[in-house]
Each structure stands twice: as structure tokens, then as C-alpha cells.
Amino acid sequence: MAEKYLNLINGEWVEPSTGKYIENRNPADKDDLIGLFPASSEVDVNKAVAAAKIAFEKWRLIPAPKRGDVLKIVGDMMLAQKDDISFQMTREMGKVFAETKGDTQEGIDTAYYAASEGRRLFGLNAPSELPNKMNLSFRVPIGVGGFICPWNFPMAIPTWKLFPALVCGNTAVFKPAELTPKTAHTLVEIIDAAMREVLGKDYIPGVINLVHGKGSVVGEAITNHEDIDLISFTGSTDVGKRINAVAGASLKRVSLELGGKNAQIVMDDANQDLALEAVLWGAFGTTGQRCTATSRLILHEKIYDEFIKKLVAKAGKLRLGYGNDKGVDVGPCVSESQRNSVNEYVQIGKNEDKAKLVLGGEFATDGTLSKGWFYKPTIFVDVTPEMRIAKEEIFGPVLSVIKTTGLEDAINILNNTKYGLSSSIFTNNVNDAFTAVRDIKAGITYVNGATIGAEAHMPFGGVKQTGNGHREGGWTVYDFYTEWKAVYIDYSGKLQRAQIDNY
């Protein structure tokens, strides 16, 4: 009998109002049922928001360093459970164990970083233009946050959102992806346990609430709820636009981390072995299911044929399988529908004029792979910048290779999409490197590194239709989760009318 999981609302683990549940299965083995998770409704969201709203009035008064202490304990608990969390994450979403350990470690890093930020929520002071008057400013929390998260980084991305929000004094209603509810359950279980440990008899129910369910139901209810003050969403650009439009009607603060069509440029003077290692990791790590994945490879014409030969040989040796087994390089797509979506784009690529499929392009069904949603690493060459496979996000193990004549042309090709998340250039020419850093239109640029591998203490996000200008990670995210309050203290003993009396 599969284990049945619950929602956390107002400090209690409760069944969904619908009484219905959603199966969670291993994408590497569809016969492996991980558990049953709530198919919640608007009723459950309303209860969670009401609890978070009440909790906010108490949580915001807890000193920020004490809120940071909670996150410190969360980090300690995650570190103690790192291998088990990672094993279960691989079972749930498919990427190999080494990668899920990295996912978990990023959550640990974010916890410790957020814990320390509880002592660094600095304000800014400025001199008054009037005598005997003082000008101060403070950061204050906003209120109840709605957090809608994806499945590809089911530990790291929720921690990017929840930990800064909580340490700033906000409360949370968290809707994880329905494909990765187990990791979310574990995370919230840890947060709640840490709160009970740190706060003791002063524990505040409702600070963190977990509501499982479908985006079209739970996500929609969060987006529309009048008592949700801010929303942080990571997912597709189309859904992000919908959330922005709906939430904007009530002037909610909204942070959107959306799609990407990232490219790695390799110049003719680059270290080819290093560039090859990077593109294999960037294109096929996490089965290409990253918003920062290397979806395009832009090769200088002088090394084009030679590099492709090496690339196809190396990619053809990648081993597919269950990510918790040793020696596996690439796991499955997260679901049957995701694999079908990838395959649809491959068929589009096959029908593109001039594009040539040189590797993969089909389901992987040999032996035990037939039990999961595996897709062979796929490479198209002779792709032109205007092709759909060169411009649209595929979110799978598909790489499009484009030829370039030089640096300016390469940068123009890289910029030729509606997205602008991550980018990479391999070169040993320092002038070319700095030119690329200046001219590439992306939120992240790597020099002699893959397009994936962001660090928790740095800003993360993109430009154009990759988001709406906010950043996750690092010090910048704390501005999103706080309001600035200006305070004027006049000890002159008389009414001073600023510009009127001063000039």
C-alpha cells in the first residue's frame, strides 16, 4: 500500500478538502509508486492563506537574527539527511544521484546564507537637509507570500524562495510541482521541525504552509487570492505571463524566473577539450531539463567539423539509466508528457531545411530503459539561427549546433532569441572574453565554463522574456522580500516644512 502524504496548514498535517490524491511515480521505472499526494482545491489554499495571514503578525515581530537561527537549524538538518534527500529526489524526478546531491547542497548553502542575512538586513541612513532632524530607513516584511515551484530543482529552487522570504519576516504558502511532491514534503517537514526547536513554546503555526495539487487549481487560487501579498514563480514563460497579468490586477509584488535558450560559444583559440566537457555537461546534465541548459552550441567555422566529430563520439557513449545506479550519466525525462514534448521538437528539427540529425532523436527503450521515460541524447548540426530548434525552449537532451564566422557573429546568434538567461564563451583571448561579457544579452555569462552551475550567493535570473527583472539568490533577492520604510525624526521642537522652509 502506497504511503499517503498530507498538506501542512496552520501547523497541522491535514488531508485535502477534496479527499483526492495524485500518484507520484519514479520516471525511471513507472511501476515504482513513491506515494500519494493531495489533489488540493481552492478551499485548502484559503485555509493556508488565512493561517499565514494570522501568523505574519507574530512572525514579523520575531527578531530577524532569531528567524535566521531557524534557517541555521534547517541547514543542519538538511546536511544530516543529505544523502537520503538526494536518493529520494533522484527516485522522484530522475536526474543522477551526483546531481541531486548538488541540488540538496545548494539548499544547504542557501539556508546558511539566509541564516547569516538575519543579521545583515541593513537599512540606509542619510543626512537631513534640515537642522535637528534625522533621516533613517528600514527594511520591513511584506506579508503573505505565494511560492509556485518547478520540478527540475525540487529542493534548491524552493529554498531560494522560501528561506529569504522567511528570514525577512514573511509567511509562506508553498505549492510544489505535482511531479516532485516528496522532496517538497521533506523540506517543509524540516522547516517546521526547526521552527519548533528554535521557538519552543513560542512556536507560531502557519508561518510555513504546504498545499499540494495541480497548478491549474492550487496555483490559480494562490495567484488570485486577495490576501496573498507577493508571488514568486519559476516555470514557463507562458504561465509566468498569466500570473503577472492576474496578480498585477491587485498590485501584488511578483518575481518571475522563466524560460531560457542558452548558448555556448567556442572560439577557434579555445581549449577544445575543456569546451567539449562543458557542452556535454551543459546539454545533457539533468537530461537537458534545466532553464540554464546548453541548448545551442555556436562553433567557430575553423574548428566546426573537428569539434562535432569529438562531440558526437563522446555524447554517444553517455550511459542512460536510473540515476541512483552507479555509472549512469543521464536519467530519464521527468514524465511521459515531457518526453513526448521533446520528441515533438526533434520531429520539427528533422523537418527543418538543412538541419542534420547526427545523434539520437528517439526514445531509449533497451532493457530496463523501457520501464521509464528515457530519451537518447540528441544532436542536430548545420542548424541556422532562425530555425525553431534554435529559438524555442525544448527542455530536454537536445543540442543544436550552429556555425559562426567570428566573435561579433557569434554574439549576434546567441542574442537571437526572446530569452536571456545564461550564456558561455570559451576563448583564450581576454579581449574577446570581455567583449562577450559586455555584449551578450543575458543575466549570466560564463567565461570558459558551462552555462550551468550558478552559485547560491550570487544573483540568478535573466533578461528579456526570461523574467521580469527580479533576481533569485545572493544579496539582491532580499530587496524583493522587503519593503523600504523611510523614517524622519525631528527633534527641533518646531514644525519644519522641508523644501518650503529650507530654500
Strand order in space, largest sheet:
14-15-16-13-12-18-19
**How helix-rich are the residues, as a percent range?**
25-40%
The biggest beta sheet is recorded as: 7 strands, mixed
Structural class: alpha/beta
- CATH class descriptor of the largest domain: Alpha Beta
Q: How far from one another are the termini?
A: 79 Å
For the record, the CATH architecture of the largest domain stands as: 3-Layer(aba) Sandwich
Rg, please?
Answer: 24 Å
- Number of DSSP helical runs: 16
Could you list the spans in which at least 5 consecutive residues all have pLDDT below 50?
none
Determine the CATH topology of the largest domain.
Answer: Aldehyde Dehydrogenase, Chain A, domain 1
Q: Mean of the pLDDT scores?
A: 97
**How many structural domains?**
2
- How much strand content do the residues show? 15-25%
Instruction: Describe the global form.
Output: globular
- Kindly state the number of beta strands: 21
Q: How would you describe what is shown here?
A:
This protein is an alpha/beta fold and 503 residues long. The protein folds into 2 domains: 30-258 and 467-486, Aldehyde Dehydrogenase, Chain A, domain 1 (3-Layer(aba) Sandwich); 262-447, 3-Layer(aba) Sandwich (Aldehyde Dehydrogenase, Chain A, domain 2). The protein has helices at residues 42-59, 64-80, 82-93, 97-117, 156-167, 181-199, 215-224, 237-248, 272-284, 304-315, 336-351, 388-391, 407-414, 430-439, 477-480, 499-502, and strands spanning 7-9, 12-14, 21-26, 29-38, 126-127, 133-141, 144-148, 171-175, 208-210, 230-234, 253-257, 262-266, 294-300, 356-359, 378-381, 398-404, 419-420, 422-426, 444-447, 463-464, 482-490. The strands form 6 sheets. A 7-stranded mixed beta sheet has the order 14-15-16-13-12-18-19, with helices on both faces. A 5-stranded parallel beta sheet has the order 9-8-7-10-11, sandwiched between helices. The mean pLDDT is 97.
